[in-house]
Amino acid sequence: MQLHPLPKRLLRCGTRTLDLSKPQVMGILNVTPDSFSDGGRFIRLDAALRQAEQMVADGASLIDIGGESTRPHAPVVAQQEEMDRVLPVVEALAQRLEVILSIDTSTPALFEAAAGLGAGLWNDVRALRREGALQTAARVGLPVVLMHMRGEPDSMNDCAHYADAVVIEVMRELAERRDAACAAGVLPEHIVLDAGFGFAKNSPQNLALLNDLWQLQALGHPLLLGISRKRVLGEVLGGAPVEQRLFAGLSAALLGVQQGHSIVRTHDVKPTVDALRLWSALPKQ
Question: Of 132, 180, 276, 281, which alpha carbon lies 20 to 30 A from 253's?
């Protein structure tokens, strides 16, 4: 592992700007009945609003709202159902909170509608592969997170063979998606990259990737870390359930930030914010 500073860069997310030279915490808000960690807890609008308000009070700079579970073997969600889950939450939060709203979706129509309501960032686990996604991203003109994944949630575990070091292949495939986005008209300064922990990667591969995250800096884009409560943490801890993976997740967050990742996506906002505040307070050479 090599230490790398965070980039001196601003990410303009609609009417709000994110300073990537210091760690930023993205709070996860799943408005789904079946997400692996907190499925069903925030599917009611009032519960979703309370959770978002708490995460902002705890220090989140972004709220990532998702209406489709992408856990392994998750069922496909119809477009209208996903929109019905997400859009009322986006509309309500945009009116209540001073925070960047990120939309965790691969559905172009949903993101375009959410952008019209005030969302500022598209977080796409499929890296704009769905029909019309590249064109929508270029037309809407907001930043997009391109995540590395092979296959689909019901098949990605069958795609976990890497002929080269996992970080090399992840970088190569992220660069391909980055190039496709730019060719479609997405501005390079609007692209954020995510290595995709747990997506088409087994635990040894996830750990190797965590150790080599610094290499993604060579791609020249801001980086997002999403490892909160993932299975690899539970396996390292001897089979710990999701509610017992906090401290391992905090360690992973620090490792990511030390290797140049500006955004940490997490279910556990306050502990992550506190840990990163301590890191930020250290004198830097």
Answer: 180
Instruction: Return the closest-CA partner of residue 29 out of 45, 13, 12.
Output: 45
pLDDT truncated to tens, each residue of the chain (285 aa)? 899 999 999 999 999 999 999 999 999 999 987 555 555 677 789 999 999 999 999 999 999 999 998 877 777 889 999 999 999 999 999 999 999 999 999 999 999 999 999 999 999 999 999 999 999 999 999 999 999 999 887 777 778 899 999 999 999 999 999 999 999 999 999 999 999 999 999 999 999 999 999 999 999 999 999 999 999 999 999 999 999 999 999 999 999 999 999 999 999 999 999 999 999 999 876
Torsion of the alpha carbons at 184, 69, 221 and 130, rounded to the nearest 10: -10
Select which of 85, 201, 231, 265 is catalytic: 265
Catalytic member of 178, 229, 230, 231: 230
Using alpha carbons, list the distances in angstroms from residue 2 to 25, 215, 232.
22, 9, 21
Q: Helices in the chain by DSSP H: which ranges?
A: 45-57, 79-96, 108-117, 133-140, 166-184, 203-211, 231-236, 246-258, 269-281
Q: Would residue 201 show up in a list of annotated catalytic residues for this protein?
A: no
- Establish whether 230 is a catalytic residue: yes
- Sign of the alpha-carbon dihedral angle for 42, 106, 13, 61: positive
Residue whose token pair is 């914010």: 273
Is the dihedral angle over the CA atoms 161, 164, 170, 176 positive or is it negative?
Answer: negative
Whole-angstrom Cα distance, residue 198 to residue 177?
19
- CA-nearest of 105, 201, 122, 127 to 161 is 201
